[in-house]
Amino acid sequence: MLRSVASAALIGLPSAAFAQDAAGDAGQPDSEAFEGNEIIVLARKQAETLQEVPVTITSVSSETLEKYNVDQVADVVSRVPTLNVQVGGSGSGGQISLRGVGSSNISAAFDSAVAFDFDGVQVSTMRLVQAGFFDTQQIDVLKGPQSLFFGKSASAGVFSIRSADPTPTWEIGGKASYEFEEQGYTVQGFVSGPISDTVGIRLAAQYNKIDHYAELQEGTPAANGRYRGVKNFVARGTLAWDPDDRFSANLKVQYVKNENDGGIQHSDLICNDGVADPITLFSGLFQIPAGYDCNAFDQKYFLPDTHPALAPGVPEPSEAAGRNGVPFGKTDLWFGRLRFDFDMSDELTLTSVTGIVNLDAVDFDNYSYGGIGDGIFAPGGSFLPVGAPGGVGTSDPTNKLEQYTQEIRLASDFDSMFNFMMGVFYEDRTFTFATAQNGVNATLLAGPDPVTGYTYDWDKVHLTKTEALSLFGSVTLDITDQLELSGGIRWTDENKVQRITIPYMHTFLETALGFAPSGFFSGPIEFSDSNWSPEVTIKYQVTPDVNVFASYKTGFKSGGIDNSALPSNSLRGFGSPDPAVREAAAAGLIFNSETAEGGEIGVKSQFANGDVTLNVTGYYYKFDDLQVQNFDGVNIQFITQNAGKVTTKGVDIGWGWQTPVDGLALSGNIAWLDGKFTDTFLVGGGAIDLDGRDVARAPEWSGNIAVDFTAPLGDSLELGLSGNAAYSDSYFASNGPVQYVQDSYVSLDASVSVQHPDGNWKLALVGTNLTDEIWANTAGERPFQAVAGLEANDTILTQNRGRQVFVEASFRF
Fold it and tell me: Which domains does the chain have, with CATH numbers?
């Protein structure tokens, strides 16, 4: 988050911003340039002012990101009501939800219901939410289905990050900060400017190291010590070429490296009966004390290393081999984007956006979320000394992604009532999910595998190939100078093929329990679907400062093949000569596509020469076959389902006031949300029907209020004071049998700074979540429970980070 290119901006104000200076080079197609007192957005894949576009958007400027040291996706939630972000864990590695609709944080097989748009490229992996972002020009959060312009994986909205572009004159800047609570530091810098009359360049890099990212409970048997740390390195290069007035090109290449001390980060457990349940294996034949203290909100986590009997025998090749059961995580990600705009004539522009993503991530951890030695022998003869690490349920998931996307658009700019946009989108994606796991922990019962000596239950690989093709078109009719009718449709065809291989299976599981054998190969498991997603919007300009609109929208998110299934005897059906048996085995892994339909009515208005902004949107949507995944903590089984129907309705209000007091601006958001299951949806083995219950992460009321004040302290000094208070009502944290309710909470952010009026240097003290509020993003059953039934079971809560206090210094010339 380098110095903003804007002079003032509001904090998360939907569809509004106050006067700002020109940003970067407005000639660059990616540049979120400012026009008058409006922010320019690309909500319909063309430059439009935020106040005029008939889409509900919350925009967060670079100045706000810098002001509060926002450098992770999860930190944006205090600016965007009804936005919820979970970071960490295996599988997908994260989750984003809007208005109570999101996707699984367990399986990487699920596309996100909230599309992650990075510099115009939709990135399919949620692993990006783990990586910090920086040198960011603007973040736009589009609410509601956005399938027409953003395609699949936008059934609930879009989270869009735009990085900064080359500047028309040479600039250099940097920042260093230290955070006291987690004991972390960040250094970053950039250089930007023209290298010729037609070519501009921007180079930026950031390094972040946090020593106390997660504090472990005292007495946790962990070789890494009392704290889990994290390191991030991000580097980006941008090259812009404008050879003439008709053609421009913009190339971005980014590298992200993340290292941490385990796949689990801020996850704690609450004991529903006040007592920590033991880690129960083999139907109660063997138990390991849990070790955790049941205090789920003290920001101290019990995350032990691997049980000594399980640690050594990891099937090769594996990053975990030789690490003796000590958790770790590594992510390497390359991102490339090439965009060009060619004015074929004065009225027609051809745009091409090519995206490449290459991800290689591995993490190693123990998904028992507990376990400590008590001096007892396991049935297989292994001994666990008192106080020794007793983590089981160990896994080393490797996630590899190779993604190529290509979008081509043709847009008109006729001096008439009629204009259009048409385009084609293609995606080719290969995703590999490979992991050695201890889902049963057979070695503790039967000893290491007698053939290989491995102490792990199995090694399995899911290879999923995806091809998607979309054709889309939209038309805009300016019926009068005030009345606009627009609409369009997108056709999507998506095909997925998954192949499952099991290089190794523990002999005991294969022979005694009938698990799929070593060398198992499923053959191709296929899924395909196609969809038409129409949209129509009418907008009326009541006055130059007041616009009203109404939209009918639909959304689509493809189904697919789950990659979280355990390799139990159910997979043996793929080897049957009976086609019906093979089809039934495949059907157990396939989940259906998710669709949305509904609409919005809104008004966007400004008064008092633009000093006052008030925007209101009401919406109503129905989601069919919402994709849901839960975990059965007794049977150690992932349950993948399509919920019957979900209905969301609500009101979003955004306001802003540039007060008569010189330098003082107020802004805020209010969101009312009613999101419910509106059809039969059985969970917990069919014992619980969620029909009529609120969906997860859907607070009835949420919002924020922000205060920004700047004042001169002489001719060469300026004082800045800012504050943001965010409120969330209570909400369910799970769409499964766990009925945990997160209570309402308030979080506070603040910053105070002194700087040169021209922005040449700045010193600041920044505090985020000053109230040190800890809340649950998701909730689920802890693995290896003794009995079914939620009354006796412990519950995992994935949580946010606590209070952070930064001191920072920056410069820019």
Answer: 13-812 (2.40.170.20)
